[in-house]
Design a protein that fits this description.
The structure is a homodimer of 466-residue chains. Chain A is 37% helix and 20% strand. With 466 residues, chain A is α+β, with helices and mostly antiparallel strands. A 7-stranded antiparallel β-sheet of chain A has the order 15-12-14-13-17-18-16, with helices on both faces. In chain A, strands 5-6-10-8-9 form a 5-stranded antiparallel β-sheet. In chain A, helix 8 packs across helix 10 and helix 13 runs antiparallel to helix 14. The first copy, chain A, is globular. Chain A starts with 8 loop residues before the first helix and ends in a 14-residue tail after the last helix. At the A-B interface, strand 9, helix 7, strand 11, helix 8 and helix 10 of A face strand 9, helix 7, strand 11, helix 8 and helix 10 of B.
């Protein structure tokens, strides 16, 4: 982790003095607020900013950036604080812009199945509002994250195999540049060949190129029918081969989640799941018309039968389905409950699906070799899985083994054509992996950063060092 | 169109001298070859480069760029020359890199449904080779374009409504930077949150940021069943409303193409279509399992019935289907045949689908008002349509009216939240529209261009002026 390279206090004071008349009591200097904003949900610790402003408009965000640009003071955008890669650490102090009060759904166009929201709107808030239009926004990273944060980290989650990630579901953005200009990217057309794709440059830039203040989203019709199913296997290989076959048949599965034996053991205990065994298990969700869903289930069951899948059972009622997916969503807490009082180091590699079984087998073997407790959950339709490596606070020897395991997983992923992060981002802890993964590409990224943010004020020390 | 700002001859000579030992007879200076490479399939005329090199490897492309970077000589990448926006005009002379000999499919991973191809591989070549693996690459712009050219212009076409455009179907690229460095972007993982999205920055950059030499593509399983259907309507409105309803029901239609009454008249004559009337007509294609396709057809027929669609008929046999789609693919030539000896100015606007009927109605009315002959074909599931404005060579007064109509369409599109180009690119003729559409965003694009190509050698005078 980078050390705290403090920004000169007089520059910070100049910025705070210029912003106080605009923000009044929405500019906060108290330690509690600053500390709350100087951390995510990870274990990178706390590095508080010098001040937190609660912005309510594009113009207010622009005012912050103009002042910070003038005085070379860092700016860190903040949604709900659910980052798990240290994105929110104020490594050099500066101003945190909390966007949670920019929580308006600005327009919904039902006929075009798009909407425009402010960055602080959360995923659950959006879907609650959209329900009345018969539409939904599919990207579901688990946490009730803000749409702005999800855009900034290129988030995805359980539905990506069918509906894509944030990358595929954003039509355009409003960004405030490091100089304080308000710029629209993309537009309402479903496609465009007009100029450079600034939208995708900003998605996943982790707040290092500007502040995303508004997001124009693609929406999807709520399916006529939703069913869920569960099937367990002797081995991770058998489960992975079922997934490959299902993808190759073009089955439009909405969710395909793998839980390894240890994770299933944890979920059975934590969520009191009845009728399940601690074996590698796939959770499926099917969206479509009644006939299409029935056909998907029949095709899938034939595939899982071929690979020795047992206990294929489906949940039709909303209650049954919700219970299953609640257990899946609680997998993180279930995993944590395996060793109460421990904290988790979460890996996020993503490999080509042909490599998935070998990669998970290797990861499990390495965890055993290093004597670590590591449940696994995976968005396996995309080849992405998370290993929770449980670590006892204060046990530095064990933390060393955990880091060794995490490092091993990234190395294996890169060797197999995968990525060091499927959906969490680089943040502060994976900068060396980005260099391994993208080599000369990182120099291009740095050129772009220098061109767009010459004073290097936007979320410094994230993604790469300059 | 920009004037020819000639690059100093001694700089060009230095580059040619340094490249001759590498390329030998694959470096061509003859006027015929240079003129062939200094134009596309549009009506922007010819501006030949100073030399054409036929590259066979990344290293050879890198050698060209290193020399051109050193001597500040322009570089224009060339695929098959099917651009229709003046991308290939050597406005300042320089070196054209013909990539057609980089035509190898480097790897196909059937289990992961991806492949990596050299930039000169054409769409039809790729699909012929993939057939044996039961896979296909869906992006179909009509022309048998090169994959590199399609990536560079963010091409799409008839299948985009179901499978997306080039943007959604590229996993990674090999690019050669303006400095001659060979850089890999993206990777084989289906998703990644690792750093800036250089892949999407290069897609649609029209060769202004580097040369795309290899493309890693997502592939799709060949559907179990493919059927086509045709339905005609009293009005464009009725057709457009049918499309909106189909999209809102989540029907996974693979193709939805609109031909207006004049275009149908042209196609009936040109392709000898039996049983069709010169009325607004939708062509559909359905992909899926037998049950899914039957269900899609039934749902769609109910929708078109609601909007007064008549003559709903489907083609099951490959022959019938091919005849229909051949007629659709020949729509351009059919339109041209309405007024033999004329040439066409092709518009490319794309609007939110709720705006589609009004936009087409307005375009047809304006064409009548200006006394121009203008068939319309549209990828209406995306809101994208092309109006062919037929112009008699040498008739400058008529050309003026055609340009007035084209300008009117772009203005209407932007007013309705659309784009000036859905899939052809900005090239040399739409730079002022890009400014209208993206305003302050163009300055960001220019900053990126200056950072990555400081000597401004890559395909100068395209997308924007510097």
């Amino acid at each position: 982790m980078s050390v705290n390279k403090k920004t000169p206090q007089d520059a910070v004071t100049q910025v705070i003095n210029s912003l106080e008349p605009i923000f009044k009591d929405r500019l906060q200097l108290g330690l509690a607020v600053r500390e709350q904003h100087g951390q995510g949900e990870d274990s990178y610790g706390v590095m508080p900013p010098d001040a937190v402003v609660f912005a309510r408009s594009n113009a207010e965000v622009a005012a912050v950036l103009k002042a910070c640009h003038q005085w070379h003071v860092p700016v860190i955008p903040y949604g709900v604080g659910s980052s798990i890669e240290g994105h929110l650490l104020a490594t050099r102090g500066g101003i945190c812009i909390d966007l949670s009060q920019m929580d308006q759904i600005l327009e919904t166009n039902a006929a075009d199945m798009d909407c425009r929201v402010q960055a602080g709107v959360t995923r659950e808030q959006l879907n609650t509002e959209l329900r009345y239009a018969g539409l939904f926004f599919p990207v579901d990273p688990g946490a009730n994250a803000s749409i702005g944060g999800m855009a900034s980290t290129r988030a995805s989650g359980t539905n990506a195999v069918r509906y894509g990630t944030m990358k595929e579901n954003i039509l355009g953005l409003t960004i405030v540049t490091p100089q304080g200009d308000i710029v629209q990217t993309g537009g309402r057309a479903r496609k465009s060949a007009a100029g450079y794709d600034l939208t995708h440059l900003m998605i996943g830039a982790e707040g290092t190129l500007g502040v995303i203040t508004e997001i124009r989203l693609r929406l999807h019709p709520i399916p006529e029918q939703i069913k869920a199913a569960v099937c367990s296997f002797d081995t991770v290989d058998a489960a992975a081969l079922s997934v490959i076959d299902a993808m190759q048949c073009g089955l439009p599965l909405a969710r395909i989640e793998l839980l390894n034996a240890l994770q299933m053991q944890a979920c059975i205990a934590y969520s009191d799941l009845q009728g399940f065994a601690p074996r590698p298990t796939l959770f499926f969700e099917f969206h479509g018309s009644e006939a299409s869903v029935s056909e998907q289930i029949a095709s899938l069951q034939a595939i899982t039968d071929d690979h020795g899948g047992t206990g294929f059972s489906w949940a039709t009622s909303t209650e049954e389905r919700n219970a299953l997916w609640k257990a899946r969503h609680n997998a993180y807490y279930a995993g944590m409950a395996l060793l109460p009082g421990h904290r988790a180091l979460t890996t996020d590699i993503c490999v080509p699906i042909s490599q998935l079984a070998d990669t998970i087998n290797d990861a499990e073997a390495k965890a055993r070799e290093l004597d670590l407790t590591c449940p696994v959950v995976g968005h396996v339709g995309d080849g992405n899985f998370h290993m929770l490596i449980l670590v006892e606070p204060g046990n530095n020897e064990q933390l060393g083994r955990a880091q060794q395991l995490s490092h091993h997983l990234v190395s294996e992923s890169l060797r197999r054509g995968g990525t060091c992060t499927g959906e969490h981002g680089i943040g502060i802890g994976k900068k060396s992996y980005l260099l391994q993964e993208h080599g000369a590409g990182v120099a291009l990224m740095q050129s772009i950063k220098r061109a767009l943010d010459p004073h290097h004020i936007m979320n410094p020390d994230k993604i790469f060092d300059l």
